[in-house]
Write a structure and sequence with these properties.
By secondary structure, the chain is mainly α. The chain has one domain. It is built from eight helices and no strands. α1 packs antiparallel against α2 and α2 packs parallel to α8. The longest helix is centred in the C-terminal third of the chain and has 25 residues. It is globular. The two termini are 26 Å apart.
Length: 216
């Protein structure tokens, strides 16, 4: 089932990228929520745990918030801020998932490089942000915190679920960095493929991390 869902997710993302490049709104409205729906299905495709699983609960909630963000960002008109808020909520939920079994980790060796990355990205985007400076700064802070805790979890736990979530979080940063550059500095060739490809890799890895871990 996982291989089948991965295959149909890949096809949906390819069709979505094609629709974005061609500017075909109806196909975007179809394939974007469909692709995110397949990611949620990937999260569901695994053995059920007998005890309450807060990690899975927070990841599912994060995926649901991401679906809301996807819908806002694909609709006509400028709904960037509502979409930004939905994804900010998603990253907060992912952060709860990554810290629920060991608490918040404040190791500077992993946090400082991410902070420097965020500062560098904001410097690149700054002149184009206009009135969105505050919400974008808040969003960057939240996604960097999410990635920090995902990487810390990867460092502290050796199971596959931890490194899948860690890589997924870093892919999320790369996708959002590309999105920010395309929106605030100017579009670049194949931006849709880069942004959406990294985004769905990130979400799929985080989704699969539910089932590839040891019980904490």
């Amino acid at each position: 089932m996982v291989r089948l869902l991965s295959a149909v997710l890949f096809v949906a993302v390819v069709m979505l990228v094609r629709a974005e490049l061609a500017g075909e709104a109806r196909q975007i409205y179809l394939f974007k929520p469909l692709a995110t729906g397949f990611v949620i299905a990937l999260a569901l495709a695994g053995p059920r745990r007998p005890s309450p699983d807060r990690y899975a609960t927070f990841v599912f909630a994060g995926l649901a918030a991401s679906l809301v963000g996807d819908v806002f960002l694909m609709l006509p008109g400028d709904r960037f801020v509502p979409g930004l808020v939905a994804f900010l909520v998603a990253h907060i939920l992912y952060t709860y998932a990554f810290t629920r079994d060991r608490g918040f980790s404040a190791v500077l060796a992993t946090g400082v490089p991410l902070v420097l990355l965020g500062v560098g990205l904001l410097m690149v985007l700054w002149d184009g942000l206009g009135p969105l400076k505050v919400p974008v700064i808040a969003y960057v802070g939240v996604i960097l915190t999410m990635a920090w805790q995902a990487v810390e979890r990867w460092r502290l736990r050796s199971h596959a679920g931890a490194w899948l979530a860690g890589i997924g979080a870093l892919c999320f940063i790369a996708s959002d960095a590309a999105l920010g550059i395309a929106r605030f500095r100017g579009d670049f060739p194949a931006s849709a493929a880069v942004i959406l490809g990294l985004y769905y890799v990130a979400q799929a890895l985080i989704a699969r991390s539910i089932h590839l871990r040891v019980q904490a």
